[in-house]
């Protein structure tokens, strides 16, 4: 196995202590402002995996264990969740804040992302709480609260330079994904449509809900359109509704994700930015 270590602020001696667990010295592969180290040819065991989990998390170091050495050029599609992945917020929670309902909506959001609540039910319940809200609240959230996650611009620039197509697939809303697609120059976007009548939210979603199954279908549909296999896709997400699309990817990336997602992903980035995929695919 090959081990990639990354950190925003870990000292070299902390990296060496982690590398010592593997019996392989760490080679510095830092570049572009990203701090990264590599240990090749590790004999992995359950015991070593548990030690790496504990030591890396304690030192705020992200690690990736890979059987091979994939390259960014091996992939043709980068598919991303939006809320709490490409951007730092959950848009629906911030919209609800305009109604003074953020705690109630956030509680439902968290339960859904942990996989404790079926997504269609969670979205229906949350959107219903927004009934009567002036639609101008959506623009306020976009203008005042929406921010890209750390490393997003570097990651997207590298993907585009490698000729990789980009897909934003979200259980959120077209108001935000359409604007993100345009501003970032993404190739595809797919999400839910909020119903607006007379300038106010009705508390309903138009058409089918973009849930876990629809996210997977969207990734597969775009792969077919591009004439590529699903294992040529990188898929990034943070919640339980991302697991289906992550399961068909060649590389799945859990970004600051819920435990159920970190456990099943190829790579988990808990501390570094989205551009943390670049040293892994160098």
Layout of secondary structure:
Elements: E1 2-7, H1 12-22, E2 27-28, E3 35-39, H2 46-59, E4 62-66, E5 77-80, H3 82-86, H4 91-97, H5 102-113, H6 119-128, H7 136-144, H8 152-161, E6 165-173, H9 174-184, E7 188-197, E8 200-206, H10 212-226, E9 233-237, H11 243-247, E10 251-255, H12 259-264, E11 267-269, H13 277-280
Parallel strand pairs: 5-6, 5-9, 6-7, 9-10, 10-11
Antiparallel strand pairs: 1-3, 1-4, 2-3, 7-8
Helix pairs in contact: 1-2, 4-5, 5-6
Low-pLDDT residue intervals, each spanning 5 or more residues: none
Helix and strand content put the structural class at: alpha/beta
Strand order of the largest sheet: 8-7-6-5-9-10-11
| DSSP E strands, number | 11
Distance between the termini: 16 Å
Cofactor: Mg(2+)
Catalytic activity: O-phospho-L-serine + H2O = L-serine + phosphate; O-phospho-D-serine + H2O = D-serine + phosphate
InterPro entries: HAD-like_SerB, HAD-like_sf, HAD_sf, PSP
GO molecular function: L-phosphoserine phosphatase activity; magnesium ion binding
Structure notes:
By secondary structure, this protein is of the alpha/beta class. It is 42% helix and 22% strand. The chain has helices at residues 12-22, 46-59, 82-86, 91-97, 102-113, 119-128, 136-144, 152-161, 174-184, 212-226, 243-247, 259-264, 277-280; strands at 2-7, 27-28, 35-39, 62-66, 77-80, 165-173, 188-197, 200-206, 233-237, 251-255, 267-269. The strands form 2 sheets. The protein has a 7-stranded mixed sheet with strand order 8-7-6-5-9-10-11, sandwiched between helices. It has a 4-stranded antiparallel sheet with strand order 2-3-1-4, covered by helices on one side. Strand 10, helix 12 and strand 11 form a beta-alpha-beta unit. The protein starts with a strand and ends with a helix. The model has no long low-confidence stretch (mean pLDDT 96). Keywords: Amino-acid biosynthesis, Hydrolase, Magnesium, Metal-binding, Serine biosynthesis. The active site is at residues 81, 83. Pfam families: Hydrolase.
């Amino acid at each position: 196995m090959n081990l990639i270590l990354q950190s925003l602020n870990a000292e070299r001696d902390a990296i060496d202590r982690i590398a010592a667990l593997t019996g392989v010295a760490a080679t510095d592969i830092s570049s572009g402002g990203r701090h990264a180290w590599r240990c090749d040819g590790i004999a992995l065991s359950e015991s070593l995996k548990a030690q790496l989990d504990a030591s890396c998390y304690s030192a705020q170091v992200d690690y990736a264990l890979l059987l091979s050495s994939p390259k960014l050029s091996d992939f043709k599609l980068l598919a991303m969740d939006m809320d709490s992945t490409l951007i730092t917020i959950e848009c629906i929670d911030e919209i609800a804040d305009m109604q003074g309902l953020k705690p109630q909506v956030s509680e439902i959001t968290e339960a859904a992302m942990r996989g404790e609540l079926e997504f269609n039910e969670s979205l229906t319940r949350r959107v219903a709480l927004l009934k009567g809200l002036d639609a101008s609240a959506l623009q306020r959230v976009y203008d005042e609260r929406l921010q890209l996650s750390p490393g997003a611009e570097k990651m997207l620039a590298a993907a585009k330079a490698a000729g990789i197509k980009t897909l934003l697939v979200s259980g959120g809303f077209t108001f935000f994904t359409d604007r993100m697609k345009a501003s970032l120059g993404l190739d595809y976007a797919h999400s839910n449509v909020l119903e607006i009548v007379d300038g106010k939210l009705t508390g309903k979603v138009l058409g089918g809900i973009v849930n876990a199954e629809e996210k997977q279908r969207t990734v597969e549909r775009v792969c077919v359109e591009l004439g590529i296999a699903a294992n040529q896709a990188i898929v990034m997400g943070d919640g339980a509704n991302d697991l289906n699309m992550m399961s068909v990817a060649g590389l799945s990336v859990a970004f600051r994700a819920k435990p159920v997602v970190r456990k099943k992903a190829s790579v988990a980035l808990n501390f570094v930015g989205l551009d943390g995929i670049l040293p892994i695919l160098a």
